[in-house]
Design a protein that fits this description.
- The structure is a single chain.
- By secondary structure, this protein is mostly helical.
- About 85% of the residues lie in helices and about 0% in strands.
- It is built from 6 helices and no strands.
- It has one domain.
- Helix 1 packs antiparallel against helix 3 and helix 5 packs antiparallel against helix 6.
Length: about 120
Protein backbone atom coordinates (compact mmCIF):
# COMPACT_ATOMS: atom_id res chain seq x y z
CA UNK A 1 0.00 0.00 0.00
CA UNK A 2 2.89 2.41 0.73
CA UNK A 3 4.12 2.06 -2.83
CA UNK A 4 0.66 2.97 -4.13
CA UNK A 5 0.44 5.96 -1.79
CA UNK A 6 3.81 7.08 -3.14
CA UNK A 7 2.41 6.91 -6.70
CA UNK A 8 -0.59 8.95 -5.61
CA UNK A 9 1.88 11.42 -4.12
CA UNK A 10 3.64 11.64 -7.48
CA UNK A 11 0.29 12.39 -9.16
CA UNK A 12 -0.41 15.09 -6.58
CA UNK A 13 3.00 16.76 -6.84
CA UNK A 14 3.30 16.60 -10.62
CA UNK A 15 -0.30 17.78 -11.06
CA UNK A 16 0.31 20.66 -8.65
CA UNK A 17 3.51 21.57 -10.50
CA UNK A 18 1.52 21.57 -13.74
CA UNK A 19 -1.03 23.98 -12.26
CA UNK A 20 1.69 26.32 -11.03
CA UNK A 21 3.46 26.22 -14.40
CA UNK A 22 0.24 26.82 -16.27
CA UNK A 23 -0.66 29.81 -14.10
CA UNK A 24 2.88 31.20 -14.35
CA UNK A 25 2.71 30.86 -18.12
CA UNK A 26 -0.63 32.61 -18.30
CA UNK A 27 0.56 35.34 -15.94
CA UNK A 28 3.37 35.96 -18.38
CA UNK A 29 1.01 35.84 -21.37
CA UNK A 30 -1.68 38.04 -19.88
CA UNK A 31 -5.46 37.85 -20.07
CA UNK A 32 -7.09 36.20 -23.07
CA UNK A 33 -9.75 38.62 -24.28
CA UNK A 34 -10.48 36.96 -27.60
CA UNK A 35 -9.56 33.61 -29.04
CA UNK A 36 -7.88 33.60 -32.40
CA UNK A 37 -5.01 31.75 -34.05
CA UNK A 38 -2.39 34.26 -32.90
CA UNK A 39 -3.55 33.88 -29.29
CA UNK A 40 -3.48 30.08 -29.50
CA UNK A 41 0.01 30.12 -30.97
CA UNK A 42 1.17 32.54 -28.30
CA UNK A 43 -0.26 30.43 -25.49
CA UNK A 44 0.90 27.05 -26.77
CA UNK A 45 4.42 28.22 -27.56
CA UNK A 46 4.88 29.59 -24.05
CA UNK A 47 7.53 27.33 -22.45
CA UNK A 48 5.73 27.23 -19.10
CA UNK A 49 2.47 26.20 -20.73
CA UNK A 50 4.27 23.49 -22.72
CA UNK A 51 5.94 22.17 -19.56
CA UNK A 52 2.58 22.21 -17.79
CA UNK A 53 1.02 20.11 -20.54
CA UNK A 54 3.91 17.63 -20.34
CA UNK A 55 3.52 17.48 -16.56
CA UNK A 56 -0.21 16.80 -16.95
CA UNK A 57 0.68 13.95 -19.31
CA UNK A 58 3.08 12.44 -16.76
CA UNK A 59 0.51 12.86 -14.00
CA UNK A 60 -2.20 11.23 -16.13
CA UNK A 61 0.01 8.28 -17.00
CA UNK A 62 0.88 7.80 -13.33
CA UNK A 63 -2.81 8.11 -12.43
CA UNK A 64 -3.64 5.26 -14.81
CA UNK A 65 -1.16 3.07 -12.94
CA UNK A 66 -2.71 4.12 -9.62
CA UNK A 67 -6.21 3.27 -10.84
CA UNK A 68 -5.06 -0.19 -11.85
CA UNK A 69 -3.97 -0.87 -8.25
CA UNK A 70 -6.00 1.20 -5.79
CA UNK A 71 -9.75 1.48 -5.08
CA UNK A 72 -11.12 4.66 -6.62
CA UNK A 73 -12.83 5.64 -3.37
CA UNK A 74 -9.38 5.83 -1.76
CA UNK A 75 -7.34 7.27 -4.62
CA UNK A 76 -9.64 9.98 -5.93
CA UNK A 77 -10.32 11.78 -2.64
CA UNK A 78 -6.56 11.94 -2.02
CA UNK A 79 -6.22 14.09 -5.12
CA UNK A 80 -7.70 16.88 -2.99
CA UNK A 81 -4.19 17.15 -1.57
CA UNK A 82 -3.29 18.66 -4.92
CA UNK A 83 -5.54 21.57 -3.98
CA UNK A 84 -3.71 21.91 -0.68
CA UNK A 85 -0.32 21.77 -2.40
CA UNK A 86 -1.28 24.39 -4.98
CA UNK A 87 -2.87 26.69 -2.41
CA UNK A 88 0.27 26.64 -0.26
CA UNK A 89 2.79 26.78 -3.12
CA UNK A 90 1.00 29.61 -4.94
CA UNK A 91 2.03 32.01 -2.19
CA UNK A 92 5.83 31.80 -2.60
CA UNK A 93 5.82 30.79 -6.28
CA UNK A 94 3.14 33.10 -7.69
CA UNK A 95 3.00 35.69 -4.91
CA UNK A 96 -0.70 35.00 -4.34
CA UNK A 97 -2.25 35.78 -0.95
CA UNK A 98 -2.85 32.99 1.55
CA UNK A 99 -5.51 34.29 3.92
CA UNK A 100 -6.56 32.64 7.14
CA UNK A 101 -9.77 31.48 5.40
CA UNK A 102 -7.66 29.63 2.84
CA UNK A 103 -5.46 28.31 5.64
CA UNK A 104 -8.45 26.84 7.48
CA UNK A 105 -9.85 25.43 4.25
CA UNK A 106 -6.59 23.72 3.38
CA UNK A 107 -6.37 22.29 6.90
CA UNK A 108 -9.88 20.86 6.58
CA UNK A 109 -9.07 19.40 3.17
CA UNK A 110 -5.84 17.84 4.45
CA UNK A 111 -7.69 16.50 7.48
CA UNK A 112 -10.25 14.82 5.26
CA UNK A 113 -7.52 13.18 3.20
CA UNK A 114 -5.83 11.99 6.41
CA UNK A 115 -9.09 10.38 7.56
CA UNK A 116 -9.46 8.58 4.24
CA UNK A 117 -5.92 7.18 4.43
CA UNK A 118 -6.49 6.08 8.03
CA UNK A 119 -9.58 4.13 6.96
CA UNK A 120 -7.49 1.75 4.82
Amino acid sequence: MHRNLALIGVCILVGAAAQLLLKAGMNRHGPINHLDLATLVSVFTNPRVVLAIVAYGVSSFTWIIVLSRVPLNLAYPLLTLSTVTVAIAATPVLKEPFTWHRFVGTLLTAGGAWLIVRSY
